[in-house]
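Q: Could you fold this chain for me?
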Amino acid sequence: MLMRRAAEHLRNQQWMAIAIDLAIVVLGVFLGIQASNWNDARIEQARSAIMVDAFRSELSDYIKVTGEFKARANKGLDAFDAAYARGERPVPFYVRVPGSDRPPKAVWQVFQQSGLGDMIHPNLTFELGFFYSEVDGIADKFVRYTEFVDNQVLTHAADPHSYYGANGTLKPEYQQNMRRLREWASDNAVTVASATCLLKRLDKPKQPGPSCRPHYGDD
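A: Sure. Below is the predicted structure, expressed as structure tokens.
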């Protein structure tokens, strides 16, 4: 309809009418492009919101579960120390985690593959990557710890005296493995603080914010 009318205006050399028809066409194309862009932006914002919510869920779970196991480790180690100080010879305290020894990082992996990196501030992307790298490193140490527990602690549980030397002191290898557990609990306290910081950063994911990188102190 519009094209027939424009052709008629052109034949009759009605230049003003032709200009109006052209403006209507240009405006229609412009509005169509804008509508498409607005729709794409809405979809990207929705995807970004889903990803941010997934990070919040994963970090919240990490804080809760890690905090529970950290508290359990510290309580058990304190109880072992108290019994050992009383002259008892208890089985070295150990912690085992049901399922995988590694915390999940599925959301981070999906984020890396999603192409949504520009939807959050680059600094926050770096902070998240650093956090998950640290969690991975701590998991590596915990795997070594649990391997020793499986191979050297549980296999001798029926004979608690096998953990101790002739002078009644805990053998060095068991002392070292319990130190690994203490370090694991201490490291987890640091990463829980880092995850808590990241949760706050995710409230405003496109804005810069304070560093959330784990800090283990000078030691």
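A (continued): The chain has a mean pLDDT of 82.
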